[in-house]
């Protein structure tokens, strides 16, 4: 349950421009698509994918840390970790099952005999877009449990792209198509309120002392 009084209190600390910017950005945020990165060894690649999610409006990034548990590279992410929800998973199947339970189809982004090119991908159903490791690609667990396969059409000699480049191309294309569609892709009212609260807290440097002062003045019943 969102404490609307607490949200209103925090927003009195923010500038009008900041609050307006939050609302503008939230208008383009979506959970219709989510992204999952699997055991990415090069830390800057995970951080760059996060930055692409933020720039193109994907609200949630799932990070599978089955083999390479690492922190997000804040320098590469350029502050994106303040605005994107990072959901960590310690196993591939834990991530896959969680996303399927939420109603997502599992889409493996890799060339495959039953793959679909980017421009032909059906955006109507919520999808979790999986990206694999730099050298090995996606695991067999993801491939066996995938509901579909997606690839970027290429016409050169090179057969693959860096994961961060692939993610940026795919996310930008699909979110642009989504915003042009008549699908119900936006965050709902409760999700928007929650993000306003989270982002307000992330924007206030001394949030712990502000929060303590608020609840001293407004004790919970």
Description of the molecule:
GO terms for molecular function: methyltransferase activity. Keywords: Methyltransferase, RNA-binding, S-adenosyl-L-methionine, Transferase, tRNA processing, tRNA-binding. Catalyzes the 2'-O methylation of guanosine at position 18 in tRNA. It catalyses: guanosine(18) in tRNA + S-adenosyl-L-methionine = 2'-O-methylguanosine(18) in tRNA + S-adenosyl-L-homocysteine + H(+). The chain is of the alpha/beta class and 221 residues long. α3 links the parallel β1 and β2. A seven-stranded parallel sheet has the order 3-2-1-6-4-7-5, sandwiched between helices. The mean pLDDT is 87. It has helices spanning 4-11, 16-26, 43-56, 74-77, 92-101, 140-145, 163-180, 189-203, 207-217, and strands at residues 33-38, 60-64, 85-89, 105-109, 116-117, 127-131, 148-151.
Task: Kindly summarize this structure in a few lines.
It holds the Pfam family SpoU_methylase. This protein has nine helices and seven strands, in the order ααβαβαβαβββαβααα.
């Amino acid at each position: 349950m969102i404490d609307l009084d607490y949200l209103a209190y925090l927003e009195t600390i923010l500038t009008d421009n900041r609050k307006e910017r939050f609302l503008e950005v939230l208008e383009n945020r979506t959970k219709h698509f989510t992204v999952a990165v699997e055991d990415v060894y090069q830390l800057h690649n995970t951080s760059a994918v996060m930055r692409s999610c933020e720039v193109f409006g994907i609200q949630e990034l799932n990070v599978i840390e089955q083999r390479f548990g690492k922190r997000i590279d804040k320098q590469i992410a350029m502050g994106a970790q303040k605005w994107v929800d990072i959901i960590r998973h310690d196993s591939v199947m834990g991530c896959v099952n969680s996303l399927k339970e939420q109603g997502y189809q599992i889409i493996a982004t890799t060339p495959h005999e039953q793959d679909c090119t980017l421009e032909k991908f059906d955006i109507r159903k919520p999808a979790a877009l999986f990206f694999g490791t730099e050298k090995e690609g996606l695991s067999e667990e993801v491939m066996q449990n995938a509901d579909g396969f997606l690839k970027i059409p290429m016409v050169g000699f090179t057969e693959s792209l860096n994961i961060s480049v692939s993610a940026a191309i795919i996310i930008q294309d699909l979110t642009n198509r989504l915003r042009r569609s008549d699908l119900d892709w936006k965050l709902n009212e409760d999700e928007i309120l929650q993000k306003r609260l989270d982002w307000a807290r992330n924007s206030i440097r001394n949030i712990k002392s502000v929060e303590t002062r608020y609840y001293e003045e407004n004790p919970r019943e």
